[in-house]
Amino acid sequence: MASQMKARVIKAENVSFTTKQIYDDPFTYDGEIIPPPYNLVELKLIGEYSTILQQCVEAYRVNILGFGMVPNYRFDYNAKDTPDERKQKADAEWTRLEEFYRYLNYDEEAETILGYALEDREKTGNGYVEILRDGLKRPAGMEYVDAQYMRVCKRTVDEEVEYTITENGQPKKIKRWRKFRKFVQMINGKKVYFKEYGDPRPMNLTNGKFDENTPVHLLASEIIHFKIGSGTYGIPRWIGHIVHQYGARKAEELNYLYFKQGRHTPAAITISNGMLTEESYTELQEYMNDIQGVENSHKFLILEAQGITQEGIKPGDESTTPVKVEIKSLAEILQQDALFLEYDTKSRDKMRSAFRLPPIYTGESKDYNKATADTARKITEEQVFEPERQAITGKLNTLFLPDLEIYHVEAALKGPNFGDSIETAKALAPIISAGGAAPNDLRDLLGEMLGKDLEALPDEYNVPFPVVLNNLQQQSNPFMTFAKSKDISNSELINIMKDLRDVIEEMKS
């Protein structure tokens, strides 16, 4: 009788980590609505599965918007040739701009609403805010719009729009032709249309049609679209590293199962001259299924095998072969855990490089000292955060200020202060001693050190300290006071000094 060999593979029935969410796009792209190049829902949710993406996005939001928004003058306010009338207009506009941003949203600060849109922009490439206007057609409110539910439509026909520019410091009205876009939002099967900010045409929010007879309660509001790139939709800056994010996630899941099923050692069970009984096979399968959890640790496995019955030479003679069962470990052929750790480290490095962030901004600063940390922060501030602030405030100022009739001030996002008060004082000491700095030149620096705003001193007090000290010394010298009080010539003054010298020499002798 020819011997036969039979193999069975026994493995645990693991729980799947595949998401159960539906990624079907509810929009119908009939020619007007433009489909996005990537699944926006998936792009936004991947931050919940990545171990590094959310930290990078948070670093952008905090460092770009976290220091607050303040007005700035568009001209040199303290210049001598600045007329008082312009200063008064600028001061009034300063107050209006502060109040505008303060009350853009009654529940959150304007920076917080912009922060939500910035997070969407960094995750999906697109961020949206809705702008509401008051009865005078001025922007008066801002609301956050979730990017995963928004779609961009094709450009509309050209529309003549009036703009306000400044020429020789004076506002001037001009007209230009421009194409606007429409936006559409769908939640729970309901569509709502929006128009691009600055589009003067009344739009019906239910169907996206421009209609002068649209009721007030059905007028569409406006959208400001923050995107990465110049395309119809923005593209996330990290999109080239998305495969690594999925790979890192799978590595995390594999490590999780390794620790969850740590009692199990991969092994091969070999049986010579016999076979497992059906009861042993069932018990082994149950053993593998129950292997998860610490409560199942330190259990014994008993295998029962039966030998193969063989017929003897004589009729009726039968014999059973001796059974040999061996368990051989296969753990040595598995990949080491360090390989997965290296993969995860490389994945994090690649994601940070996409955002151009050093590790200190994602909480990995064990290899930094003060010098290297300051250098990393300054370079990132110059190359990443400050240009992003300029781009955001530049867009807002371009859109808002003409509608608010503000021409002398603008909004600016503040950044961190890298100055060291001790080092700054050391650098300014020789300049102050040489009379190269007036008190008003140092008031802003002093205000930052004290944490308060200091007003400029009057002109009579805005005098360099060495000049003041020299005047005080001359006023305290009685000889100089006598010389200034008498109408004497230089030659007479010299003769008086010579006589005084002779008197001093006689007193010494």
TrEMBL record:
<dbReference type="Pfam" id="PF04860">
    <property type="entry name" value="Phage_portal"/>
</dbReference>
<dbReference type="InterPro" id="IPR016753">
    <property type="entry name" value="PBSX_Firmicutes"/>
</dbReference>
<dbReference type="InterPro" id="IPR006430">
    <property type="entry name" value="Phage_portal_PBSX"/>
</dbReference>
<comment type="similarity">
    <text>Belongs to the phage portal family. PBSX subfamily.</text>
</comment>
<dbReference type="InterPro" id="IPR006944">
    <property type="entry name" value="Phage/GTA_portal"/>
</dbReference>
<protein>
    <submittedName>
        <fullName>Phage portal protein</fullName>
    </submittedName>
</protein>
